[in-house]
Amino acid sequence: MEKGTFIDLTADLRELATQAGRVGMVEDLLQRALLSLASIVNYDLATVLELDGDCLVVRAARGRLANHRVKAHRLRLSSMPALREVLESRRARAFSDTDHETGGDPFDGVLDLPHGHSCMVAPLFAGDRSLGLLTFDRTACEPYPREVVHLVDVYAQILALAMVNSEQAALLERMRVRLAEENEYLRQEAIDHQEVEVLETSRCEMVRRIAIMARQVAGTATPVLIRGETGTGKEVLARYIHRTSGRASRPFVRVNCAALPASLIESELFGHVKGAFTGATTSRQGRFQIANGGTLFLDEIAELSTPLQAKLLRIIEDGTFEPVGSDTTVKVDVRLIAATNVNLEEAIAAKRFRDDLFYRLNVFPITLPPLRERTEDIPLIAGRFLATLTRRTGRGPFKLSQEAIDFLMRQRWPGNIRELVNLLERATIVAKGEFLDLASLSHGVLEPRSGEAGDGGEKIVSLEEAQRIHIRRALAHCGGKIYGPGGAAALLGVKPSTLQSKMKRLGI
Fold first, then answer.
1. What is the pTM of this model?
2. Residue 201 pLDDT more than 90?
């Protein structure tokens, strides 16, 4: 071997070691290995055959003969005794004419190579684990030199170690991500436990009835559609349904449909197979598979594209789907809870949301009231949050004076509970004592509800808002029922059609 070639190969090996430590770089690692070997091995086809049970599968291929048939090739070791011997002996060898006749040609029937063509095979192994084979073929009918065979044998061992190292790096990364997710899940569980207590002990009759409805539907597999403004606690309610169901010991998986790019959300939900798209170097399970046996919470479901809505409809109907790039049907058992702050009826009219999907999701709808309609819960929510914050950060404890509570109860809270807890957290950061000064901190941020005296007196809202509040309370009292005896229309003393028209006008 020439000195320059040796230096180039050494540099390639150094690069190979660097690539081996990077997550998701196995395909690139193998291609670089085959490219670097071209400096010492003349070949028309070089492949990495990965061992899969009793089969060898082409994992990487390079050279002028590397066509689609080669890349899709699989062969059984039971029919290739010469290849099995290479794996068992763990020594590279150049095949002779006799070897070709006795099952030593990996691409027999795939490539039209002349009898006696150059062929070399090297085992890939690490410790007691056999990974597969390196193969080299060329149309010339002359054997590979002995020194080249020895050098390839050593290179194959280094490549095998790099493959294992890359595999372990990917495993460690998956474990790191999983641990981070579990930590976040446990942290969220602790926070949600406090919020669930608020749900169950609410001073608002409407919210207490919602908690009853949630426990009723939790014992079924019925899809649930949670509606309400941003920040009203839709995810908390979804977790409550999951926790009080028979699936409580199984995963609760959340997907924010608005937070993912349209190009990624299909893969995120349904998974993909290796090679399904650029960058898909490995197969990956989707959120439906991860949630199998448990609950999948789809937040902001109105943001799903129409094609994905059709695929979601199929899962609701028969529990099956195909991962991206696969023609294999996967069946799952998932309880689906969807949430939105969008008026879905308007989205259907605008052709942005499928009406058939709406009807399948709307079997058991629950509407969460905005914070301005449950102001009696503000002291409870604030107290629970401040107690949780103290446990989480070690700061505090913090308290609210009656004046501060009255101030909070006079605000509109367009951001609902999320806006409330954000204000409280800001107040704890700048607090100079145990009592929080909210009025000065919220100047220019909050605004009192329209028509209120602002002095803590009786709250006055617009007639339209009063009607909206009254109808929602009637619906909550009747469990969402509009028609018939015990329905909201009968309770309010109006015709069901009149009530529905008024609900539509008021955006209920």
1. 0.58
2. no
